[in-house]
Design the sequence.
């Protein structure tokens, strides 16, 4: 955050929130839950009132949700077969 | 269950693991390649996909004596048809890994118990994650299942050396190494066709039904654009996006799978998502990025 922006935000009583540039830099890790708590609070506060950044966050959240839906379809039958196979390794060891 | 006669073609190996198609359950099928009688505890395991897995010798599950340095795990992924005896390698045979480490006989039982506990506690609960990541890596459901099965075998053997810390990361490393070994020996015909990726991912009975008609109408263009943009991403970006957003891995776990620093994962993820975001803007289903965000995106691209 530039010194001017920081100063202006302090003058506006918003020194404890992130700037647009700061949000832009940390948005991805923020959405992934990889941001430290202090930074999360600063970003949360900014997103409460910044329409542009809020829209950006919503867009990326929707992208993540769409991608997540594509990846969530693991064949349960295949997972069950593999679990059974793993258990059979244990069982075979017990037979020794 | 029957007791096979033996595996002469794996005579030099302490570990012999056979897969036999269920549609050829005759004794001859197993015996075509099994001429010896050196089994200590014969037994069959079923892998649940039309094949039986034969654990021919107990050293697979325990310690191999130091006196047998040539021991190895051999996984016969096909029938023994056309394969003779006496330690063959060739079609149908692959070396899965190096021999298990030697353990002093006095500690063998304790080591075995620890191995079993570690496998049950740390490995089995991760099967779903392994399968998802394997699907991303292989892009073929059948290959993914084979890859995870090989990974389970390796993990089982290595469990006694696992310190219990970060089991998922440890398993993902095994998965990656197993995948690399498989790719090196893979036939070109088995390489994935990216165009069939999506169909393969969802083509199983009982897959969740699509969303409601309203959702489909509202989200169709958005979802389609995201899917196309993802498929169009260069592999370096697409693989990270798939591992993190589709498979749910953390940055560190994705870094482990790809064998790159975590910072590289973050950078590639940012760039991959930004390209998907740009595709949405171009399609008109999302606004153009705000100036501050566009500027940061451009800076990330410029640093690469």
Sequence:
């Amino acid at each position: 955050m530039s010194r001017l922006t920081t100063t202006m935000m302090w003058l506006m009583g918003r020194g404890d929130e992130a700037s647009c540039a700061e949000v832009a830099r940390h948005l991805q890790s923020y959405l992934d839950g990889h941001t430290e708590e202090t930074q999360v609070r600063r970003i949360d506060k900014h997103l409460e009132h910044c329409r542009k950044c809020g829209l950006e966050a919503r867009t990326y959240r929707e992208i993540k949700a769409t991608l997540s839906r594509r990846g969530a379809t693991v064949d349960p039958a295949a997972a069950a077969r593999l679990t059974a196979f793993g258990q059979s390794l244990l069982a075979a060891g017990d037979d020794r | 269950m029957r007791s096979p006669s033996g595996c002469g073609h794996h005579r030099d190996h302490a570990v012999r693991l056979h897969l036999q198609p269920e549609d050829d359950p005759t004794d001859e099928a197993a015996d075509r390649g099994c001429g010896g009688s050196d089994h200590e505890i014969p037994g069959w395991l079923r892998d649940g996909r039309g094949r039986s897995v034969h654990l021919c010798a107990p050293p697979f599950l325990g310690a191999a004596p130091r006196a047998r340095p040539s021991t190895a795990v051999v996984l016969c992924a096909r029938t023994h048809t056309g394969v003779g005896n006496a330690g063959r390698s060739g079609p149908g045979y692959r070396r899965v890994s190096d021999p298990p480490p030697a353990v002093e006989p006095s500690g063998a039982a304790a080591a075995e118990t620890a191995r079993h506990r570690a496998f049950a506690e740390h490995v089995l609960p991760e099967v779903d994650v392994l399968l998802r990541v394997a699907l991303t890596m292989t892009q073929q459901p059948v290959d993914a299942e084979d890859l995870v099965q090989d990974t389970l075998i390796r993990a089982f053997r290595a469990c006694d050396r696992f310190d219990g810390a970060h089991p998922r990361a440890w398993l993902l490393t095994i998965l990656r190494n197993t995948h690399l070994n498989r790719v090196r020996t893979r036939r070109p015909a088995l390489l994935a066709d990216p165009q069939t990726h999506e169909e393969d991912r969802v083509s199983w009975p009982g897959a969740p039904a699509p969303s409601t008609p309203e959702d489909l109408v509202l989200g169709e263009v958005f979802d389609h654009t995201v899917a196309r943009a993802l498929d169009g991403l260069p592999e370096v970006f697409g693989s990270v996006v798939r591992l993190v957003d589709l498979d749910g891995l953390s940055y560190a776990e994705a870094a482990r799978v790809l064998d790159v620093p975590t910072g590289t994962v973050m950078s590639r993820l940012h760039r991959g998502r930004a390209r998907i975001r740009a595709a949405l803007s171009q399609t008109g289903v999302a606004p153009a990025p705000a100036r501050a965000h566009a500027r940061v995106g451009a800076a990330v691209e410029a640093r690469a």
Q: What stands out?
A: Chain A touches chain B through 51 residues (CB under 8 Å).
